[in-house]
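Sat 14:20. Reprocessing the chain from the morning session after the first attempt stalled halfway. Input below, unchanged.
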Amino acid sequence: MRLDSHVHFWRYNDAEYAWIDETMAALRRDFMPDDALAVMQSAGMDACVAVQVRQTVEETRWMLQLADRYPFIAGVVGWLDLRSADVAAQIESVAHPKLVGVRHIVQAEADDFLFNEPFRRGVECVARHGLAYDILIYARQMPAAISFARAVPEARLVLDHLGKPDIRHGGFDGWRRDLDRLAALPHVYGKLSGLVTEAEWGRWTNEDLRRYVNAALDAFGADRLMIGSDWPVCTVAAKYDQVIEIVGGAIDERSRSEQDSIFGGTARRFWRLT
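Finished this time. Tokens:
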């Protein structure tokens, strides 16, 4: 089973999706499972994990309802208020076989957000309940993410979009050093996702992006990497099949077992998908 580790769904409205500015006007519409399934199937992908966009428990419940209706949604990474004292109760309130993880949009927070002690306790609670945590940050926040990951060794962590390297401005070297440090922690995994939107839209090349894919392979190895499209956000910079091919082309000389891990095996193990 070829599995996309990072897909979003939404019913668009201006108030809740204010982050979709004029440069991303094409995203100002509904994106639903039927839309995703069409582009996934054309690119040879079989299943996906749906990831939160709005920081509400209501969205988490909505995504789980979609997962009940659409079998190709293998798992849901939702949102809970991890800084709250009642995280355990929140987890129980949304308990579902397809709830596999939690995410907070840390990239929108202050750079020291991951040092917040109540937040760390919330992530530890998530881990005790068998759920994973997605780290969503910009490259400048990588040092904080390294300290955070060291402080929660019992948690299963995955780095979304490889930490959003500043590909557009050539921010490779510092990002690579930080990525290596984060990947040295065995409980941290990485998503080969979101690269096209960090590059120059409309001007990126496969060679530009493969440099980052290869760096991630060196740092994590295939057993801790998973492919993700970041659909539909990726469509501002590339078509779905192009995004999949960026990774597929970069690993076409790797062993079959490595390719199988990146295209689904790692995600199934990490999220304990059936």
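The radius of gyration is 17 Å.
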